Structure of Sel1 repeat-containing protein:
Amino acid sequence: MKIFFLLLVICVSPVAVAETPNEDQPIQSTPRAMLAMGWMFLQGDRVEHDRAQAEYWFRESAETGYAPAQIALASLLYADAQGGLNPEGVFEARDLLLEAAPAQPPIAAYFLARIYSEGIGIEVDPSLAAQWANIAAAGQDPAAIMLWQRLEAQLVPEERDAARQRAVDWLQGLEE
């Protein structure tokens, strides 16, 4: 029975099915597999919950430039900043999100909007927060749309229009 369970874990593990590497690359070194390892440790999924191991695997994957891992690591660092565990982590989180934004605009933009609107460890910038919220809302996520509406309501018309224009310009830059 123990052998069957071990085989089941290996066969259905996100690490095992994350992606097929080429024959020169072990599966543990693929960005998706490393990200999956991070999520397993963070959630305690088939392994003991270990936040440090989760950060390690998120970071390993993020360093390859894999946008989903950059966002996962950024969210972990930002949560630490929110909880007062590592307020300086917000700067690394912001930089990771800015790097990931072209590949994952709605998700990265949502977190950037929160960073600039909440001002935890970083100066509040309502106009920049509205710009990123506008980009996030373009992905049609209900939470992003609510954030965008709330942030834009706080701006005077000139600031709102400028934030919208910067969002449009940024999105158009992705198409070029």
Notes: The chain has ten helices and no strands. The CA atoms of residues 31 and 61 lie 5 Å apart.
